[in-house]
Design goal:
It catalyses: 4-phospho-D-erythronate + NAD(+) = (R)-3-hydroxy-2-oxo-4-phosphooxybutanoate + NADH + H(+). The chain is α/β, with parallel strands linked by helices. It contains 15 helices and 14 strands. α15 links the parallel β13 and β14. The longest helix has 18 residues. The structure holds nicotinamide-adenine-dinucleotide and 4-phospho-D-erythronate (DEZ). The site of nicotinamide-adenine-dinucleotide has 32 residues, from α3, α4 and α5.
C-alpha cells in the first residue's frame, strides 16, 4: 500500500509505516501526479482535495484529514467515487479552549477587567463551543450561546440570536465551520454592520476560519474604533494575511490555536484508527505517542485569585509568545507556513496537575478543574 501524507502530520511514521510505504510531502505541494498508484491520502487543512487534485488518482480508496474543519475537502466527490473519508472531530478542541483562556486572562489584565461577572458569547456550540462553555462558566462568566443549527436539531437547546450576542457580550468568540451556502452560511457573518453592534470595548476572538470575518471591513472598523480588542488566529487569504490588519489587532497568531501536542497526536491517531478499521488492523494508543509533559505538575499555596489563575494558565500556554513571533516574522517570505511547520511543543492545561501546598476550598478546586487542569482532590 502507498500513502501520501502531509509532512506536518506528526506520528504518521509511527502509526502507518509498519503497514504501508509512506511518502511525506508539503501539504500545499501535493499534485495530481503524486496520487498515481496511491491508496491513501492524509492531509491537514492546507490541501484542497477536489476534482483537479484527484484527476489522476487511479487507486485512491481513503482520504483522512487530521482536522475538524472540512472546508478544504469536496466530500460529495469522495462519496461519488466510493472513497472513504474521515476527519478528526474534537481532536484539537481542548487546545482551542486553552488559546481562548490564555487570551482572556491576558486582556483581563491589560484592560483591567474582573472576568467574573462579564458576559461571554460563543458562536458555534460544537466540539469546541461545548467544552468552552463550562470553562467560561467556571470563571464566573455569564455565557450566551448561538448555534441555530443545533437548535433546529435539539429542541431543548437554547440558541440566542447573533444580534443578542453581539450587543450583550463583553467577549465574543467564534467556533463555527466555514460554509458558503445555506441559511446558516458563515462566510462574512461578521462585517461592518455586525461590528457596529458590538460594545465599544468588547473583545472579539476568531479562532475558526478567516473567512468568517470580513477582514477588509474589520480593518476599516479598527482604523476608526481602535478600542475594540481583537484576537485573530485565522485570516482571509492564508498564508498571506493582510499586514495592515495584523498591525491593528491586539493578538495575531498564524492559525495555531489548535496546535497542542495532544491535538496533533489525536488528529493523526483518529485518522489512523479509521484507516486501521478499514484494513482490519489494531487501533492506536495515543498515550504511547505523547511524551511526558515538561510541566506535569504545579503547586499552589493560596486560593486562586485572578492573578494566580493567569500565572497558572500562562505557565502552560502563553499566547503572547505566538503573537510576538508572528509580528517578528511578518513580511518574511513564507513566514506563515514556516511558523506553523516549526511550531514549538505546546501541551494542554489538562496535561498539568495542580497540587496544593495547603488545603484549599472545594470551590477553588472546582474552578481549576473547570478550566481544564487536572486537580488532586
Ligand atoms: N484555529 C484553529 O487551529 C482551529 C482548530 C480547530 C477548529 N478550527 C475551526 O473551528 C471550527 C469549529 O470547530 P469545532 O471543533 O467546534 O467544530 P464542530 O463542527 O464540532 O462545531 C461547529 C459548530 O458550529 C455550528 N454552526 C454552524 N454554522 C453556524 C452558524 N451560522 N451560527 C452558529 N453556529 C453555527 C454547528 O452547528 C456546530 O455545532 C472548525 O470548523 C474549524 O474550521 C480552527
Ligand atoms: O480545522 C482544524 O482542525 C484546524 O483549523 C486545523 O487543524 C489547523 O491546522 P492545519 O490543518 O492547517 O495544520
Amino acid at each position: 500500500m502507498r500513502i501520501i501524507a502531509d509532512e506536518n502530520m506528526p506520528y504518521v511514521n509511527e502509526l502507518f509505516s509498519a503497514h504501508a510505504e509512506v511518502i511525506q510531502v508539503s501539504g500545499r505541494d501535493i499534485t495530481p501526479e503524486m496520487l498515481v498508484d496511491v491508496d491513501a491520502l492524509l492531509v491537514r487543512s492546507v490541501t484542497k482535495v477536489n476534482e483537479s487534485l484527484l484527476a489522476k488518482a487511479n487507486r485512491l480508496s481513503f482520504v483522512g484529514s487530521a482536522t475538524i474543519g472540512t472546508d478544504h475537502v469536496d466530500q460529495s466527490l469522495l462519496k461519488e467515487r466510493g472513497i472513504t473519508f474521515t476527519n478528526a472531530p474534537g481532536c484539537n478542541a481542548n487546545a482551542v479552549c486553552d488559546y481562548v483562556l490564555s487570551c482572556l486572562v491576558l486582556f483581563a489584565e491589560r484592560n483591567q477587567l474582573q472576568i467574573s461577572g462579564l458576559t461571554a458569547g460563543i458562536v458555534g456550540i460544537g466540539n469546541i463551543g461545548r467544552r468552552l462553555l463550562p470553562r467560561l462558566q467556571a470563571l464566573g462568566m455569564t455565557v450566551l450561546c448561538c448555534d441555530p443549527l443545533r437548535a433546529e436539531q435539539e429542541p431543548e437547546f437554547q440558541s440566542e440570536s447573533l444580534h443578542t450576542l453581539l450587543t450583550q457580550s463583553d467577549v465574543i468568540t467564534f467556533h463555527v465551520p466555514y460554509t458558503r451556502q445555506g441559511k446558516f452560511a458563515t462566510e462574512h457573518m461578521i462585517g461592518t454592520a455586525e461590528l457596529q453592534l458590538m460594545k465599544p470595548r468588547a473583545i472579539l476572538i476568531n479562532a475558526c476560519r478567516g473567512e468568517v470575518i470580513d477582514n477588509l471591513a474589520l480593518k476599516a472598523f479598527l482604523m476608526s474604533k481602535p478600542e475594540l480588542t481583537v484576537v485573530l488566529d485565522v485570516w482571509e487569504n492564508e498564508p498571506n494575511p493582510d499586514e495592515e490588519l495584523l498591525a491593528l489587532v491586539d493578538i495575531a497568531t498564524p492559525h495555531i490555536a489548535g496546535y497542542s501536542q495532544e491535538g496533533k497526536a489525536l488528529g493523526t491517531s483518529m485518522v489512523y484508527d479509521c484507516w486501521a478499521e478499514k484494513n482490519q488492523l489494531a487501533l492506536s494508543d495515543i498515550n504511547q505517542l505523547l511524551p511526558l509533559p515538561d510541566l506535569s505538575a504545579m503547586s499552589i499555596a493560596a486560593e486562586p485569585s485572578q492573578e494566580l489563575l493567569k500565572q497558572l494558565i500562562q505557565a502552560v500556554y502563553d499566547v503572547r509568545n505566538d503573537d510576538a513571533r508572528m509580528r517578528a516574522n511578518a513580511g518574511n517570505a513564507g513566514y506563515f507556513d514556516h511558523m506553523r511547520k516549526n511550531y514549538p511543543l505546546r501541551r494542554e492545561l489538562m496535561s498539568t496537575q495542580v497540587n496544593f501546598a495547603h488545603p484549599i476550598s472545594s470551590n477553588a478546586k472546582d474552578l481549576l478543574s473547570g478550566i481544564g487542569f487536572q486537580v488532586t482532590q
